[in-house]
Model the fold of this input.
Amino acid sequence: MAKAATKATKAKDAAEVKSLEDLQKDLAAKQLEIVEARRGLAAGELQNPRVITKTRKEIARLHTAIRAAELAEKGDK
Done:
């Protein structure tokens, strides 16, 4: 259980370091990556279908980090 908390803490720390624009660029890249992975899965070219699940979770984490950054920015004003 401590291992999961450590991963969450690292992800949170990494998100705080990046700016809102960087997070949005990362999100766009991950969304493109999941589209390509789904295309590869349909074409039978994808070697590891777990990539889709991993990418979906990364996208969700980025959405959460973006929202937190927006709220922090709004709170500073």
Observations:
- The CA atoms of residues 31 and 76 lie 29 Å apart.
- The chain has one domain: 19-76.
- The helical segments are 2-17, 20-43, 50-76.
- DSSP finds three helices and no strands in the chain.
